[in-house]
Specification:
373 residues, alpha+beta, Nonspecific Lipid-transfer Protein, Chain A, Jelly Rolls, 2 domains, nine-stranded mixed sheet, six-stranded antiparallel sheet, 20 strands, 23% helix, binds 2-oxoglutaric acid, JmjC_dom
């Protein structure tokens, strides 16, 4: 086992090297295999002649990055080239994003598979489901593996016990720093020209929180969009049901008045969008309509189609791509499978959190169903 482990770790770090050539003479990546309680680290020494890798057992005093995974993840990396389970990582951001890009990102074949399996889906309605009525294995099979969106109506007991209001957000979360999208951000989204400013959440709410959409202007209200959820918020957040909590660590929050919006795009991770306050109206377009929408790749995990407006029935593409509309009310979560295009609009003051699942989408890489209840 030990020599096989060494070979696996050596191969993983070798695959990461091209993206972490940072000129340092030595890089150390620590691994912990959770279920075996094994620790080993890979040392990369750089000389004028190239890079030499060696694997040592035990713990290094000052690793550049630490990666915690399981024996099953190592087997998956060796056979499938990707992990399915939750992987915790700390340390150097370039090393961690290299690990994510290399072992936790969907392949072009995986993307094509999602576009293919959604081709045969029929029905213009999104199911509204209850946590009590489905087991995790049912949910994974019927929705996640089938790439079918669903609204989960009763997944937020903590939020229901202590509902949020704009005043409570201001007083309890107001110190969080937020990046606010300003100007005509929907037109410039994901471009370098998109304007943003950094504020405290309380300042943002004071200046824009309860503003109304200005229909006379093209510019939408500034939007505190896609900010990383601070760690202490995880204490009161309701995690998505049906999936392991460890997969849900990559959460973002979205706060803004009526009229704030995120134009049409798709993410290549399975996602739960959780509505804490207010209401959003969401247009969904099936992955198989990608050829109609000419998505523009922003990075491996996101494609933008912000020139297509699925809410405008006159738009030349809208009628051909059969958008499905969902109203997401406070207390509800939308399961949004990887690859589904979505255009999201706040119809009132709104506070949402989305949880990207840190694994290859279920529709491409199913879990071992026997381990789910
Ligand atoms: O709520 C929004 O404005 C956008 C959310 C979104 O795009 C997502 O969860 O992927």
């Amino acid at each position: 086992m030990q020599s096989e482990l060494h070979t696996n770790l050596h191969d993983i770090v070798r695959a990461l090297l091209p993206s972490v050539a940072d000129g340092k003479p030595q890089t150390v990546v620590q691994f912990t295999v959770r279920d075996k309680r094994l620790s080993a680290y890979v040392v990369v020494d750089r000389t004028a002649h190239g890079e030499a890798l060696r694997v040592e057992d035990g713990k290094h005093g000052r690793p550049d990055a630490s990666i915690f995974l399981s024996t099953a993840d190592l087997a998956d990396i060796a056979s499938l080239g990707c992990v399915r389970g939750p992987v915790s990582m700390t340390g150097s951001p370039p090393l961690l994003s290299s690990f994510r890009d290399r072992f936790m990102s969907i392949s072009p074949a995986g993307k094509a598979r999602i576009e293919e399996i959604t081709r045969s889906q029929i029905g213009a309605e999104v199911d509204r489901i209850s946590v009590a009525a489905l087991s995790p294995a049912d949910f994974i099979q019927r929705y996640a593996m089938a790439s079918r969106p669903a609204v989960i109506v009763d997944a937020m007991p903590k939020r229901n016990a202590s509902p949020w209001t704009i005043e409570r957000i201001r007083s309890e979360l107001g110190d969080a720093s937020v990046e606010v999208r300003t100007g005509n951000y929907a037109a410039d989204i994901y471009k370098e020209t998109m304007q943003t400013k950094d504020l405290r959440l309380a300042e943002y709410l004071a200046s824009h929180g309860d503003g109304l959409a200005d229909s006379a202007q093209d510019t939408p209200r500034p939007y505190a969009a896609s900010n990383g959820v601070p760690w202490d918020w995880h204490l009161w957040l309701d995690y998505p049901p049906f999936v392991p909590e460890g997969l849900c660590q990559y959460a973002k929050f979205w706060i803004g008045p009526a009229g704030t919006k995120t134009p049409l795009h798709r993410d290549w991770l399975d996602n739960f969008l959780s509505q804490l306050v207010g209401t959003k109206r969401i247009a969904l377009v099936s992955p198989h309509h990608a050829p109609l929408l000419s998505p523009r790749g922003i990075h491996a995990g996101l494609d933008s189609c912000n020139t297509v407006d699925p809410f405008d029935p006159q738009h030349q593409v809208t009628s051909k791509c059969d958008p499905v509309f969902v109203t997401l009310n406070a207390g509800e979560m939308l399961f949004l499978p990887a690859g589904w295009f979505h255009d999201v609009r706040s119809t009132s003051f709104s506070f949402s959190v989305n949880f990207f699942l840190m694994r290859i989408p279920y529709a491409v890489c199913p879990p071992d169903l026997t381990t789910l209840l």
